[in-house]
Structure formats: structure tokens, C-alpha cells
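Practice record 12: protein with adenosine-5'-triphosphate.
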Amino acid sequence: MDATIEVRDLHKRYGRTVAVDGISFSVRPGEVTGFVGPNGAGKSTTMRVILGLDAPTDGTALVGGVPYRKLRAPLRSVGALLDAGAVHGGRRAHHHLLWMARSNGLPRSRVDEVLDRVGLASVARRRVGGFSLGMRQRLGIAGALLGDPPVLMFDEPVNGLDPEGIVWIRKLMRSLATEGRAVFLSSHLMRELDGTADHVVVLGRGRVIADTKVDELISTAAGNRIEVRTSKRSEVMTVLANAGATVAAVDADVLTVHGLEGERIAALLTEHRLPFGELRQHRATLEEAYMDLTQHAVEFTAEA
Ligand SMILES: Nc1ncnc2c1ncn2[C@@H]1O[C@H](COP(=O)(O)OP(=O)(O)OP(=O)(O)O)[C@@H](O)[C@H]1O
């Protein structure tokens, strides 16, 4: 089976509410794809439709090339964590997973393997009712991994977790992608995906407003700038502005430059015999790139 999710021209309405308004995107193997947008943007709806929990009003959502409902062994094809609170509190972690494994024809040995992988082996016989939110998230992730699926989906997995839990989830997402799986991860905060996602699909009011590699998004962001220290501020400003850069004075002897590479700046200043100190590169964060991307989409920003 292909490790992919393919969403094409997907629409979903609930009565008069348009939750998803004609979106298309792909989630590819070996990558973490972040699915970002403010509350109500349509992320959970899209995930539910991909998992066959809701029928689309129009369009298609395929997992490994087929609609979810046609998958012969769903847990072996796609694992998902939508709501960590969905497990009955009276159940023991091990039994919960064993029941899932049995009902999907998966070997019992997988239960111990996934409990180990998510770090719950030592509490496997405890009742889920006594689990912290972080432990419940881990149990939900264990369930998603049970069938060793090539495609994984997680809806806001870091919500409410402590910093240690967040770091753990990030590492896990990266390692799942490194194993060649397609990992689809939603969040309403772009900064949660910094360092985790390779690709982002940004949703606003049921529409895709960006579908891009994270590196490309960051490299074109206005937050990318180079700081130049010089005693000849106005001469340097003139030379760099004439070369097409946007230059702003930060301090008596510090300028920030957008739109020119460090090497080019150094070459120009040397050529014009202008003195300069160290050139400091500031790389935009994913959050800055996101703000930059959405600042023109007034409606979207207001909603966010
Ligand atoms: N079952 C439903 N019945 C009616 N409206 C719904 C239903 N599910 C979602 N909606 C509406 O569809 C829109 C998109 O909701 P959705 O939950 O998909 O957004 P989201 O991006 O996942 O937001 P959140 O981060 O809050 O979960 C919202 O306006 C929501 O109120």
C-alpha cells in the first residue's frame, strides 16, 4: 500500500455551516506534514472524513489510493489518534490494546511492542481511569501504531501536554517519518510544528491558504535578515539599497538587511571600501513565516 493521503476537492457542509470548502492536498511518505489553522478552520472535519467517520458532501479522500471504508485491514493501513479521552476508564491499558489487536486480527505480540515504544510498559496493567493526560495520549498513540501502518494521523497530539511530553511526541513523529511513514499532524499553533514538520498545509475557513515545504516557507519569509555593524551607516545603506536590498537602521551603527545574501553584502561593501564588522544572520522562525504568510489574509487573521 502507498504511504499517502490524497485529498481532492473535498467539501463538507453541516446544514448551513461550510466546514470544508473545496480543499486538495497530499501527505507523502517519509515526511511529517503539519495541518495548521485556527479553531474551527476545518482540520478535525477533514481528518474525520479521511478516516471514514464522516461522509464528504463532495470530493474524495484516499488513504493509500483507496477510500478508508474500502481498506481491508484498516489498522494495518492507517493509525490515528483523534481523541485521547475516548478510552473507557475502567479498562487496563494492556487489555484495551489487546481488544483492539484481536478485533483487527493483529498478533498479541504487537501489544507489548507498542506499549514499549510509547513508554507505558510499566503501567500496562493499570486502569486507564488513573492515567494522566500525557499517559492517555501515549496510549492513544500506541493504538495508532498497533497495526504498524504506513500512514499515521494525529489530531492536536500535544494539546495539554507538559514540556517533556511535547519533546517526546516531536521525537516520535520525526522517527515515524524517518521509518518512511506518512505522518499527518494537526495543530492550531504553527510554533508547535517548528522543528517537527517537513511540510505544512495551512487551512483557514475551510480552505487551503498555503501548501508548502517548511524550508521554503521560512527562506522566503520577511523575518530573514542580516545584521550589519558599520561606522558608515548612511553610505552602507545607500550601497545596499542600490543593490536591491531593503535596509533599516536599528542602532547608530547597526543595520538590518532583507533581500541580499551575506556573501553579496560582504562583496559589495568590500568593493566600495566601506568598513563593516561581523554579519549576523537571523533566520525567521516558522511562526514569523506564518505571520508573514497570513498578514494579507485579513479575514483569516481576524479569525485567528
Ligand atoms: N458535527 C458537526 N455539526 C455541525 N457543525 C460542525 C460539526 N463538526 C464541525 N462543525 C463545524 O465545522 C467547522 C469546522 O470545525 P472543525 O472541528 O473541523 O475545525 P478545526 O479546525 O478542527 O477546529 P478545532 O481546532 O477547534 O478542532 C466549525 O465551524 C464547526 O463548528
